[in-house]
Amino acid sequence: MVKKILSIVLWVATAAALVWLFVYAREDYLHTPLKAINLIPETDTGFVSKSALYKEIESFCKEFGRSKEIKAVDMIAVQEVMKNNAWIESSTSYIDLDGVLNVSFKEYEPWFRVFGKDGHSVYVTRKGIVIPSSRIYTPYVLVASGNFELRSDSTTYQLCDTLDSDRNLLNALHWCEAIERNNFVSHGIGQLYCNKRNQFELTVKGFDGRVIVGDTCDAADKLWRLESFMKQRIDSPETKTLKSINLNYKNQIVCTKR
Fold first, then answer.
1. Residues 224, 226, 229, 230: is their CA dihedral positive or negative?
2. Does 174 fall in a domain?
3. What's the pLDDT band for 2 if we cut at 50, 70, 90?
4. By three-state DSSP, how is residue 43 classified?
5. Residue 141 is part of a domain; what is its CATH number?
């Protein structure tokens, strides 16, 4: 009986000691000054300035010129910095046992760039996310221009097929998808253009005229006909005299001379 009591007391004392050690270690950890900030880009697209981002995060981790204690670091503010960055798609942040604030983030990857009627430009991702252009980075992507009404602010938003202002952007996205699926044509397209009637035209390398493709209906078939024409006639002297190639008619290629 005595042994049983001693055993229970020993287990209770051990458990209490472990709890005390845990509390002591935790308090010691929380009162330790933050040692460093480590930015971990999951993708390095180029839109985000690491030095600027570092300084912005550092402002929440410094107090009177020295590092704050770990418990005083405002992790919510750090996440707000990442959330408010228009070029960051997602992020996570944590402080490890060494007292280092680790911030990992993933940048948006632009698929094509759009110039609106007022000269303002944005980028669109494969998922239909519109992100603002940047002064520090210009990726080499397909360009669309013409009759696009773009928001003047610098927010990031998802394209919506119920908004008239987004309809041409969505159609441009669908054309980019169709162009990418045609490996031959994708290497010859220079630019997308949306005219005043909201019909799309393509700029084709090696051809000075317009290639009219209209709306996105039967986009794959239109590009297949364009591919056939390019393979057979693009180097022909007669092609140099053409003003336009119209693929907007079913099973036809209608050419107009200058």
1. negative
2. yes
3. low
4. coil
5. 3.40.50.11690
Distance, CA of 230 to CA of 17 (rounded, Å)? 81
Report residue 78 as tokens.
């750090």
Determine how β-strand 142-146 pairs with β-strand 189-194: parallel
Enter the tokens of residue 199. 């019909």
Residues 116 and 223 occupy one common structural domain: yes
User: Can you tell me the mean pLDDT for 45-65?
Assistant: 82
* 82 and 123 inside one domain: no
68: in domain: yes
CATH number at residue 59: 3.10.20
* Average pLDDT for 225-233: 86
Q: Could you tell me which of 48, 195, 215, 66 has the C-alpha nearest to residue 134?
A: 48
Range 238-253 average pLDDT: 86
pLDDT in tens, 60-91: 777 655 677 777 788 888 899 999 999 999 99
DSSP letter at 190?
E
Range of the domain at 133: 110-257
Distance of alpha carbon 91 from alpha carbon 197, whole angstroms: 41
For residue 107, list its beta bridge partners: 88
pLDDT of residue 11: 60
**What is d(CA 101, CA 37) in angstroms, rounded to the nearest whole number?**
5
What amino acid is encoded at 241 in this protein? T
Burial 218-242 (b: 16+ CB within 10 A, else e): bbeebbebbeebbeeeeeeeebeeb
**C-beta of residue 214 within 8 angstroms of C-beta of residue 174:** no
What's the pLDDT score for residue 164? 64
- Between strands 100-107 and 110-115, the pairing is unpaired
